[in-house]
Amino acid sequence: MQKTFKKNQKVVIFAGGYGTRLSEETERKPKPMVEIGDYPLLWHIMKQYSFYGCREFYITLGYKSEMIKRFFHDYYILDGNMTIDLKKSRVVKAKGRREDWIVHLIDTGLHTQTGGRLKRLEPHLDGTFMLTYGDGVSDVNIKELMAFHRAHGKLATVTAVRPPARFGGLEFKGDRVVRFTEKPQIGEGWINGGFFVFEPEIFRYLQGDGSVLETEALERLAEEGQLMAYRHERFWQCMDTLRDKRILEKHWESGQAPWKLWK
Questions:
Q1: How many CB atoms within 10 Å of residue 198?
Q2: Roughly what angle, to the nearest 10 degrees, separates helices 41-51 and 142-152?
Q3: Is residue 2 very low, low, confident or very high in pLDDT (cuts 50, 70, 90)?
Q4: Alpha-carbon distance 189 to 241, whole Å?
Q5: 101-140 in b/e burial notation, b at 16+ Cβ within 10 A?
Q6: What is the dotted CATH code of the domain comprising 10-161+189-253?
Q7: How far apart are CA 53 and CA 247, in angstroms?
Q8: Rounded-to-integer distance, Cα 41 and Cα 32, Å
Q9: Residues 6 or more apart from 139 whose CB is under 8 A from it?
Q10: Stretch 154-169: mean pLDDT, rounded?
Q11: Which residues are within 8 A (CB) of 118 and not within 5 positions of it... i.e. 6 or more apart?
Q12: pLDDT surpasses 60 at 187
């Protein structure tokens, strides 16, 4: 399964927004750099894609871009043990994590909209590519998602998800509760869950930095019959609020995080 994609499969991740609804964390760092466990959410997303063989990533930067650049610049050095011989000015790095990734960190502007950030990557994306937001994880099967996209032959695929309900669900018989479900993954219908697949013709729908991918390109694609939905019924969780962060942390600390497909 890990070798489903060619080594040059390209994945775009939006990581430039302000994340104002998670201000408790994002006053100090961009939202994709908020940590779940010992690693930022951005790393978790990339690990999921790389499990299926995707290894080339384009990260669109904006707000506090220097933190994302520093993370990847220091990634190998900071992971694992290190011995420093001060007298000889020598650093010996113990064997640490080595990801088979190529990471392109692209400054796309501080105030650029989602479509504008993608438009700036047009010179780099000349074939089918994947895209997602830097603030949500899922156990979506990337292999099946791509197969679905290639089978329908349209320009775009969006992963449709049912968000977790924010409150427990009740079922009644008269006034008696016969079933209580703690925050089931049922939601209020299907929503945009990210995890897109696009053909390069998407760039015809984007005009500049002010373009909004969702309200301009995706709406037009839907009207023209060029947008298909890959329905994902299993786990999906965004990180919009501090409550969402705590939900993800709870999953991770349990040792059974649904999105953790890698060993």
A1: 23
A2: 70
A3: very low
A4: 21
A5: bebebbebeeebbbbbbbbbbeeebeeebbbbbbbbbbeb
A6: 3.90.550.10
A7: 28
A8: 5
A9: 234, 235, 236, 258, 259, 261
A10: 81
A11: 12, 60, 131, 202, 203, 206, 213
A12: no
In degrees and rounded to multiples of 5, residue 252 shows phi and psi of -65, -45
Q: Is the pTM of this model over 0.85?
A: yes
- Domain map of the chain by residue range? 10-161+189-253
- Rounded distance between C-alpha atoms, residue 244 and residue 62, angstroms: 23
Q: Please report the pLDDT score of residue 180 as a whole number.
A: 64
Q: Among all chains, which residue has been given the structure tokens 């299926």? A: 52
Residue 89 region by backbone torsions, left for phi larger than 0, else alpha for psi between -120 and 50, else beta: left
Query: Higher confidence at residue 185 or residue 126?
Result: 126
Tokens of 29: 């760092």
HSE, side-chain direction, 13 A CA sphere, residue 222? 10
In one letter, which amino acid is 27? E
Q: What digits encode the pLDDT tens for the residues 21-54?
A: 676 677 788 999 999 998 999 999 999 999 999 9
